[in-house]
Amino acid sequence: MKVSKMLLKTLRETPAEAETVSHQLMLRSGMMRKLAAGIYSYLPMGLRSLHKVEEIIREEMDRAGAQELLMSALLPAEY
């Protein structure tokens, strides 16, 4: 896919709510957008980066003999 066809909108100025440098860069580069307080949506480049990080972590966990699990977003307080 050509870059000109991608859903990519960058920002010139740093958003006020972004505190860390990595958060500022991810918002400015068009990797994610804020929907509400603490809720972000990943745009195509951010989702691609997230998948690549997951792949690297999965390879390292497999190499170490670890097991992967998926937990729900809501957990009881005792966990």
Summarize the structure in short:
With 79 residues, the protein is α+β, with helices and mostly antiparallel strands. The chain has helices at 21-28, 44-64, and strands at residues 32-36, 39-42.
What report would you give on this structure?
There is one protein chain. By secondary structure, this protein is an alpha+beta fold. It has helices at 21-28, 44-64; strands at 32-36, 39-42. A two-stranded antiparallel sheet has the order 1-2. The longest helix has 21 residues, at 44-64. The chain is extended and about 45 Å long.
Main structural class: alpha+beta
Q: Average pLDDT across residues? A: 82
Basic shape: extended
Strand content: 5-15%
Strand arrangement, major sheet? 1-2
Largest sheet: 2 strands, antiparallel
Helices and strands, in order, run as HEEH
Number of helical segments with 4 or more residues? 2
Question: Topology, pairings included?
Answer:
Layout: H1 21-28, E1 32-36, E2 39-42, H2 44-64
Antiparallel strand pairs: 1-2
List the keywords:
single chain, 79 residues, alpha+beta, two-stranded antiparallel ribbon, 2 strands, 37% helix, extended
